[in-house]
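quick one
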Amino acid sequence: MQVPSHVEYERATSVEHALSLLSRPETRVLAGGHSLIPMMKLRLAQPEVLVDINGLAELAFIALAGDQLRIGALARHADLLSSAVAGQWFPIFHDAEREVADPIVRLWGTVGGSLCQADPSEDLSAVFAAVRATAVIRGQHGERMVPVREFHLGPYETVIRPGELLAEIRVPVRPGTGSAYEKVARRVGDWSVAAAGAVLRLHTDHGRTVIESAGIGLTAVGAEHFVAAEAEDFLAGRVASSESFAAAGAIAAERCHPAADQRGPEDFKRHLVAELTTRALRRAAARAGS
Ligand SMILES: Cc1cc2nc3c(=O)[nH]c(=O)nc-3n(C[C@H](O)[C@H](O)[C@H](O)COP(=O)(O)OP(=O)(O)OC[C@H]3O[C@@H](n4cnc5c(N)ncnc54)[C@H](O)[C@@H]3O)c2cc1C
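structure w/ flavin-adenine dinucleotide:
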């Protein structure tokens, strides 16, 4: 099937206008369209109305505000990749965005669309989980905040209700934090076979570098909410060392749930999780210290 079924098209002129259009039944937000349009062509999605939010400049921003990095849902992958302030505080964003698809997809695909698509292989879901971001969801009756770690209910399913849209994502900024993302794909621009993102906050205690907190996100390997929670708990309070990073990698590999598919068997994916988590932690620690 290559042709979507009949659909009405509405172009929103403001967030309020978008929300009023979304109050109609069977509507869907259209952002970059890089996931939604192919799904409509395959008839996996059959909305009756598309609400195009591409004209909403008020949702297309990346800015530091106090102790938070704020990213509008309509910021494109390319915007995040070229954002100096995002790269300065969270190099993990630049690591991941360099690996998302190709320049054409990155120019159109949006940060919000990536999160809302909730594809288990979406790189930014693991990244925003690792940095412990908060999603700001708008509806006609106001705004609600949801930690990204609670945003995804399962594959292709999020907490966004009919009539709502994701407006922005907020990331707490803390000095002394380092982050990194490591991905293995079959070829350049492909989806992950597996990937791992790490965020470390370090401090010095009696001359030793100690992990204050760790965030670990996993892509495409069936980790609950894209998080390696047991590995994070293991690291908190330990000395930042190659041994503790390797042990955390092993825990992450053991506790995730990869499925064998055309990208590889389960044991290969577990091997990747162990190795990529260890590497991401090592790089995050080096960046935290610099
Ligand atoms: C060839 C190709 C390769 C790709 N490779 C990768 C890759 O390696 N890694 C990766 O992470 N991604 C990859 N992607 C996906 C890419 O990141 C898409 O940009 C992303 O999946 C969807 O973003 P979008 O803006 O196009 O969303 P759309 O396709 O417009 O929307 C996707 C879904 O989210 C909903 N939605 C969008 N925005 C909002 C909002 N603000 N509020 C509520 N709902 C919303 C839509 O209604 C729809 O259900 C690839 C895509 C393509 C086409």
